[in-house]
Amino acid sequence: MANHWSLLILLVLSIYFVANIHTCLCAPNITAVCSKQERLALLKFKHSVNDVADMLSSWVSNDCCQWERVHCDKVTGKVESLHLRGSEDIYGVQECLVGNEVSSSLRHLRNLKLLDLSANDFRRSRIPEFIGSLKQLSYLNLSYANFFGVIPPHIGNLSNLKVLDLRSSKYSYTYNYNTLMSDDMSWISGLSLLEYLDLSNVDLSKAQNRDMVFYMMPSLEMLSLSRCNLTNADLGTLSNSSTTLANIKNLDLSDNHFKGQFPGFFQNMTSLEFLDLSDFKFSLSRNSTNFLSTIHYFPKMLLSSCGLHNMHLSPNHLNFTTISIIQHLDLSRNLIEGRFPSVLINMSSLLSLDLSSNMLNSSVPIMPNLLRLDLSKNNFTHIEDVGIWRQCHLKELTVWANLFKIELSDPPKNVSECSQYAFEMLDLQKSLKGVITESIGQLTKLRYLDISKNSLEGVITEAHFAKLSMLKELYIASNSKLTFNVSREWKPPFQLIRVDLSSIKIINGFPQWLPTQKKLQFLRLSNASITGPFPTWLRKMRVVEFFDLSHNKLSGPLTNLPNEGSVYVLLLQDNLFNELIPISLCRMTGLQFLDLSRNRFTGRIPECLGNMRNLVAMQLSSNQLSGVITSSMVPQSSMLRWLTLNDNHFTGKLPRELGNLQELVMLDLGDNGFSGNIPEWIGENLTKLAVFRLHKNNFTGSIPRSLCNNSYLQILDVAHNDLTGPIPHCLGKLNIMITGISIFEYSGYSAYEENLTQVMKGVSLKYTTTFIYVINMDLSSNNLVGEIPVELMSLSALLGLNLSNNLLNGGIPDNIGNMKALNSLDFSVNQLTGPIPPSIAALNFLSYLNLSHNNLSGRIPTGSQLQTLTDPSIYVGNKDLCGAPLPKNCSNNEDQTTMHKNSKAANHKSNKVWFYMDIMCGFAAGFWGVIGVLLFKKHWRHKLFMFAEEIVDKIYVAVVLRIDKMKRGREST
């Protein structure tokens, strides 16, 4: 019996063993499926964001492990990684997720080891606390995601974390706009395994226990505390903890508030390979001997903007043994002047050197091992000074924006030329003058050549490029006296990827050599004197992504466009194209930027343009387009930011579908024939609008209060319509008009080109790239009524305010002097009354003022800035005003009319006083006439009380009898 049991147990164990072997062998071929809970969690996250770039378009199937950007464990099917990093394409378009917060559904991903939400836009929401519950995380990247507020200490619960990146907005430092901060850094003590920590641009100035950043992470290899508002006290803490940071390889302390002598504690950081101390304000004495003498091994050192000068780089201040090992050195934006520092010649390991933004003017010596050299923004006077013909081994040379224009001459005859040049990149922007000689062709290894924005003249021919067979990028733009003249049969030796020949003169019309460039991606030929229609061969070019032929004299119908699918940017503004906008544009499904403005197009907008789902900008202004904008014409693009249809002949009401364009930053519909009310959804849905222009249309009704929701609004122009009603008081709360911090500045939004017209200083001004600095409100030439809201005086960043040609009454608000930035003020042709407030003299930047044709009175205020406004027409049409610059003098006696009004007011006040005194006297006489008699005449007092008692008794008896009679009546019934 025992043998049977033994055999049975052996059989069961064998089956179990074989099953396990089969499972292990076959596991790699089994595809795990994610759980329903995790799938729903991811879908909730997807629905909580606006996926403008279709990053999550694959999140539709039942198995979330098959979705893009999601990675699961192959055996368990648990979600382990979420790669949701946004991006920015080569045209500056941000491809990212947009949401009001990070959905809490992600807390269900308990096995998550990697979470990357960087480069997205969570609209200044807080970093969610639930992230601290994802205990398996080893990688967390929340950088550049537009988070705001205090870093939650719950992150300290992530004990397995090795990488933490909380870099704040890359635009915020430029405008002193830290978005993340910490009030206590003690949470960092829970991250003992951390190897990579980046807190760049996180405000740590008020954080307690921030010394723990240096003490509590022995495994740390990379630490960035750039732009964290640290001070010398933090530098002392770092000095005391330098031995605990022995493993650190990369240390970035740039752009803080450090000053003093060069710290010596770095010698304890024996693993350090990269050190950035840019903007460290060194205060070294000329006898100091410790500068750079204590470093151990820094292959890469950045000392930009440190106030260094020549003496700091003298042999007395340097340790040649240590500096000779530096490979990459940045000394840009210092005070190094005159001769090239000789000490740099002895740095035999130096591969890359940046001396830009100094004051060097002498010859650069030969440095045989140097590969990259930046000498931009210095004071060189000869091309020989930068060593272009002597640096035989140099691969990259940048001499951008030199103070003096220098000639790119041939190599000197008495100098032995290099047998072969190693140059691959040559950037000489804003530094050259004269003629480009054919010797440029000797740089046979050139891949990148930029000689744009110079004062070059003469002719460039085929001979200049004869030997440049490796050239990939060519930039010759913005040389107005330069002519590009090659034969129509020329076949270049190179295959360009990018070419910019804008703002030079191109001979022989459209360049006929372009079809030979099979890899061309970027083509800019704007302002190049090109005429005629597009050549037929243009539509066969299949690679061009960026296509700019603006500011020429191209004419005829828009035909022969390049291959539809490849074009992302099409810029044809300022030409002579006519007839209809072709429907072939609609086949450019990837198009992001379309600019056909300032041409002669006629007819209606093709309805198929509404199917363009990737458009970021559509500019059709200043044509002869007409008709009603239908819903199907509105682009169905969730990324559309610029829509300009101004200066055409459009009519009708605005389609409701415009309200779906929630990313719109600019909406310019001015100078058309649109009608109806301004829709409420403009303010309710288009909350990112910075420019809203309806100038010169036929809109009626009132200004919608919903516009007050547009906190980014910096240009509001609804002038020359038929608007009625009062000015909404809430317009005084428009944030940008108070702070002056434009969305174009801190968010990175930018436009490649814009033509915006605004009435400022009484005239129409055209703004191009500078419109981002304009903050203006124009409500003029309507039928607005009521008083000027005192709340508008809070708009302290407003540059222009125009309320002229309305029906406004009341006085000018007394606190108008609070509008400190005001440059242009126009309240003319209204019904304003009262004096001009004296505070108007506090407007120190006011250069244009018009208060004419009102009913203002009194003396005109004086002040330093008002004294410059001497044109009497500023105040004409106000018959009760006096004082300079009007001829009516009120220096001896106040204006008679004003005095008469004041006298009447005084008399009125006096009459009131006498009226109340009469009443009081009458009351006193009547009261004491009765009461006094009763007090002194006892007999009278007794008679009065007896009379009163009899009257009360009679009333009481009458009431009782009446009630009794009513009771008997009810009982009888």
Automatic annotation (TrEMBL):
Task: List the lineage, top down.
Answer: Eukaryota, Viridiplantae, Streptophyta, Embryophyta, Tracheophyta
* Residues of the Leucine-rich repeat-containing N-terminal plant-type domain: 36-73
Q: Which GO terms describe its cellular component?
A: plasma membrane
- The molecule here is called Leucine-rich repeat protein
Q: Which organism is it from?
A: Artemisia annua (Sweet wormwood)
**Bilayer disposition of the protein:** Single-pass type I membrane protein
Q: Where in the cell is it found?
A: Cell membrane
The biological process GO terms on file are: defense response; response to other organism
* Record field: transmembrane: 913-936
**Keyword terms:** Cell membrane, Glycoprotein, Leucine-rich repeat, Membrane, Repeat, Signal, Transmembrane, Transmembrane helix
